[in-house]
Amino acid sequence: MTKRREESDRSRSTKKLLKGSLNLVKRGGKAPTAGQQTGQLNLFYETAESPQGNDAGRERGKSASRPSGLPKSKDRNGQDWSAMVTLEEVAREENLREAFRRVKANKGAPGPDRQTIAMVEEHLEELLPKLIRSLLEETYEPGLIRRKWLPKPGGGERGLGIPDVVDRMVGQALEQVLKPLYEPTFHPNSHGFRPERSCHTAIAQAVKYLEEGCGIVVDLDLDKFFDRVNRQRLLDRLSQRVKDRRILRLIGKMLNAKVVLPDGVVIETVEGVPQGGPLSPLLSNIVLDELDWEMDRRGYRFVRYADDTNVYVASERAGKRVMASVTRFIEKRLRLKVNTSKSAVAKPEDRHFLGFRLRRDPLEGDVEVLLSKRSTERIEKRIRELTPRNWGQSLRACLRGLKAYLNGWTGFFQIVTEGERRLLATLDAHIRRRLRAILLRQWKTKRTIARRLIRLGVSKNTVWRLLHNGRKSWWALSHAPAVDRGLRNAYFAERGLVSLAVRWDELNPSFHVPQQLALPLG
């Protein structure tokens, strides 16, 4: 009874925090701070079965989210940013210094010119006047972009473009000037690369839609999005707000920079946005903001994080209709490509979204936030890499690497609900067993193993019975009762091992989105 009551309390706490994380404000308002009262967002939807595929109740043809009465170039406070978007502002010395500070903070590898951030910093005072002059005279020419292929979690490879450090600084300076112009009017359901939004807020909004009764998700995967962006269309869209043509020409130069492949071959590209530069996230949101507002116009309940888009509907029939309609818009209007092999209309628990699965508890009716299969496989693989059986350094060195990784992992996956605690405990046990196998291998001889285990409090009879019971591998010995008794959980905890289950308990309530991430979704 006590355990059931505790679980019920946790469930109520989860729902309370989830609603708190989505404290919605009235249209035109600001995100609430702690202790402030907020109004409730008026969201009305049409039924998912309507001919337009709309959700329940909203007046047809009207947008509920775009700030009304404001020109596109103004923010909610009436500040007109378009007048400030000039090449002089981009090339302003303080703007470039701030851009370099951010590039330095992000670290990153050298570009094709092999100049590191430290090398550029050493000559920054000499570089800045020349860079400012070349920008204002429009003689600045971006260098090559180094292409690096990275494996994607779902299979295939992702092409990362690494510009030179100076080009990254210029891209960052452009981003700092353009962002205030575009950020205020991006759709509130867009969560990627935006202030006060994150994967956690995207998941929180998806949970909200499931709680409202949406049982089917339309999972849209854009095929090689960053490589397929139509540059001319992007520049045309930028020109609607950016009146300084010199900025458009500068962005065009950066988009058209040649690419050097891993084998040294230099190629020209005619489409795409280099994924890896500071300007790319903003440009991607500018491209896909048109999709966001089109889905809003149709009344869809959707969540977008970068190029991952989920639309939530009430039935499979509505989902298939939405899939066909949105695919047509993406391919004909945006000139992008939907990956039909990775896109699907399915139940949320069968799909991977930002590392999570969402499932409605059949008994309680609450929405559970679970680890996706892909996320589980990735942490298991990383644990194997961090705890190889032939580890040749000290245990503390091994634990340092584990601690850094596991702290970051729990920080991201802290929002999983109670249903995943058992899996976290299983992962903890697996990590400890691998560490025991490493120690046994380092101790090598039976005499050393016996002496260490006895010193740790295991009885002599138990130890010698273990060691004289035939030859076993280090992995088999690592799970023997005598080894478990000697190398207890506390042994590793005292030496700094992070426990996933314990960290989850510390971060309870189960669904936690920080207060500062309360969303102005109205």
Short synopsis of the structure:
The protein has helices at residues 2-21, 87-90, 93-106, 117-122, 124-136, 165-182, 199-211, 225-228, 231-239, 245-255, 280-298, 316-333, 373-386, 395-413, 421-443, 446-455, 460-467, 474-477, 481-486, 489-494, 500-506, and strands at residues 145-151, 157-162, 216-221, 259-260, 266-267, 301-305, 308-313, 344-346, 356-360, 367-371. By secondary structure, it is an alpha+beta fold.
What would your notes on this structure say?
The chain is α+β, with helices and mostly antiparallel strands. Among the domains are: 82-199 and 223-286, no CATH class; 372-506, no CATH class. Helix content is 47%, strand content 9%. The chain is built from 21 helices and 10 strands. The strands form 3 sheets. Strands 2-1-4-5 form a 4-stranded mixed β-sheet, with no helix packed on it. It has a 4-stranded antiparallel β-sheet with strand order 6-7-3-8, with helices on both faces. Strands 9-10 form a two-stranded antiparallel ribbon. A hairpin with a 5-residue loop joins strand 4 and strand 5. It starts with a helix and ends in a 16-residue tail after the last helix.
Please render the helix and strand layout as text.
Layout: H1 2-21, H2 87-90, H3 93-106, H4 117-122, H5 124-136, E1 145-151, E2 157-162, H6 165-182, H7 199-211, E3 216-221, H8 225-228, H9 231-239, H10 245-255, E4 259-260, E5 266-267, H11 280-298, E6 301-305, E7 308-313, H12 316-333, E8 344-346, E9 356-360, E10 367-371, H13 373-386, H14 395-413, H15 421-443, H16 446-455, H17 460-467, H18 474-477, H19 481-486, H20 489-494, H21 500-506
Parallel strand pairs: 1-4
Antiparallel strand pairs: 1-2, 3-7, 3-8, 4-5, 6-7, 9-10
Helix pairs in contact: 3-6, 9-10, 16-17
